[in-house]
Write a structure and sequence with these properties.
The chain is α/β, with parallel strands linked by helices and 374 residues long. The chain is built from 10 helices and 24 strands.
């Protein structure tokens, strides 16, 4: 199979025309011309969302295989072909049960034409109450060995967000990294110096830059200042233009080229009508008119938009399409250690999206299998 396009995303830039040849679920070759003449649209790798709590009424924290299948199929049709399901703060037994369900879904759905599960991300419970956002304060705790050990032992865990200033956090980072688990700094009141200490211990990511963290001040750079100036850290960024102002997004791309990973932080409300209220993280959340989940007190509780919408909104804000698309494909794939995802290159998985001029997915493929769009 050959897929041709007017433009191809290559190394963070749009070039074209060109095409990719697909064999046995992988890209066999990338061609510098479009066979047969004129081609339309922009061809990119499938989007890689490393921070998604759910969508289409499905909360990944509590989902069984049928619900995972339904949500992952719908995500693939939006061009989101790889997902790291995220569970927010809960008691440790509940988190372990979520990890179990994610592992079972990953194994049973492998090979199906749905968004592939990359592993599980736990956002909490080792967070700072001062920056807890929508997380329940009574479930937050320090990463003491008795609580961390069972999580460390779980084969589905691929990433954990914590606040590095909590007691025992730096040792926890070292232990997690030694097991191959990515550590992300988030929901934190850390100083820029504490962010550097977390990176020294092995942390490699920052969870939703600017949100739920000590903010940037000219005499106190906080977490954004530390993250954007430390080349060891990839910064997750919610691109819905409401969690973060477009100008602040632009500053992030300028300050940390190649280290911005676009994420959705979508919750189960994503894809549902505005005004919908559903339980999320132990409390009700309502989808507002801007596509934000809200607690009853107005606190933002995740996004009601998906990663493809974040791509459209950031491009519309004036950030270059190549930069935005690279941040939604190659950068997050590299952040989790996947060299065969998020790129148009020989040997990479044939997870593809063909976009129209309005940056709507026109066609999408997972492992070379077309999944339709919509």
């Amino acid at each position: 199979m050959i897929v041709a396009a007017r433009w191809l995303l290559r190394d963070g830039t749009l070039r074209g025309p060109g095409a990719v040849e697909v064999r046995d679920g992988r890209i066999a070759a990338v061609l510098d011309e479009a066979p047969g003449g004129a081609a339309e649209g922009t061809l990119t790798p499938g989007l890689v969302d490393i921070h998604s709590n759910g969508a289409f009424g499905v909360d990944f924290a509590g989902a069984e295989v049928p619900a995972f299948r339904r949500a992952l199929a719908a995500l693939a049709r939006r061009g989101i072909t790889s997902v790291q399901p995220t569970s927010i703060t809960a008691p440790i037994p509940s988190l372990l049960a979520s990890l179990d369900r994610c592992r079972i879904a990953r194994d049973r759905l492998a090979g199906e034409p749905v968004a592939r599960i990359l592993g599980a991300h736990l956002e909490g419970p080792f967070l700072n109450p001062v920056r807890r956002g929508a997380h329940r304060q009574d479930w937050l705790c320090d990463p003491v060995p008795a609580l961390l050990d069972p999580l460390l032992a779980h084969p589905a865990l691929t990433m954990l967000t914590l606040a590095p200033e909590r007691d025992g956090a730096l040792e926890a980072i070292r232990r997690l990294v030694a097991r191959g688990i990515r550590v992300s700094v988030g929901h934190t009141d850390a100083t820029s110096e504490q962010v550097a200490s977390a990176a020294d211990a092995g942390a490699t990511l920052v969870t939703h830059l600017y949100n739920a963290m000590r903010s940037f001040q000219h005499r106190d750079p906080g977490v954004p200042g530390g993250a954007l100036t430390d080349s060891r850290l990839v910064c997750g960024l919610i691109g819905d233009s409401w969690h973060v102002h477009p100008l602040a997004c632009c500053l992030a791309f300028l300050a940390a080229p190649g280290r911005i990973a676009l994420v959705s932080d979508s919750v189960l409300l994503a894809g549902l009508p505005a005004g919908t209220t559903l339980p999320f993280g132990g409390l009700p959340a309502t989808l507002d008119e801007h596509g934000l989940g809200r607690r009853e007190d107005g606190t933002i509780s995740g996004a009601g938009t998906l990663l493809d919408e974040g791509v459209r909104r950031l491009i519309a804000s004036g950030i270059g399409a190549g930069l935005v698309l690279d941040a939604a494909t190659r950068v997050p794939a590299d952040a989790l250690g996947y060299s065969d995802l998020g790129r148009l290159a020989a040997g990479a998985r044939a997870d593809l999206v063909l976009w129209d001029e309005a940056w709507q997915p026109r066609r999408a493929w997972v492992g070379g299998v077309e999944v339709g769009v919509g």
